[in-house]
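Reading a protein record of the kind used here takes little practice once its layout is understood. Each number in the token line that follows is a code from a learned vocabulary of backbone shapes. One such record is shown here in full, so that the layout can be seen directly:
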Amino acid sequence: MNDLHNNCRTKRALGPVALTTVAGLAGKVIDRQGYGGVEFLVAYGSVTATNATITPVVKEGDVTGTMTSVADADLLGTEALAALPAQATSRTSGVGKFVNTRIGYKGNKRYVSCGIASATVTAATIVAIGAVLHSPMVAPVDNP
């Protein structure tokens, strides 16, 4: 039976938040105890600056206070593929704004987070990141 609903848990990793001119925002630490992996879903809202770049940054750690960048071998996809790159022309819906991307974590650290590194953004830029914990050691998973 195809049943994702009873085999995953969702968490808020970031936002939704309006980015400003800061270099980035840290994501909420996700405890993945009891789950085999995490898929981060990045939702980009209305991005007005053509030269804006927004890149998800995935971190991991054995404890919550010591998070380090995840090695590429422990990611499914890349941070660059999940990023919103600068564009030379006006952004259009589904291409440079109102875009959803994803990046997965398959490493073995208990704690993970996904934040944002950004450059040349405005307060009109809305970003949100959701985390889908999957491959539970015990299923079905309680709802929500």
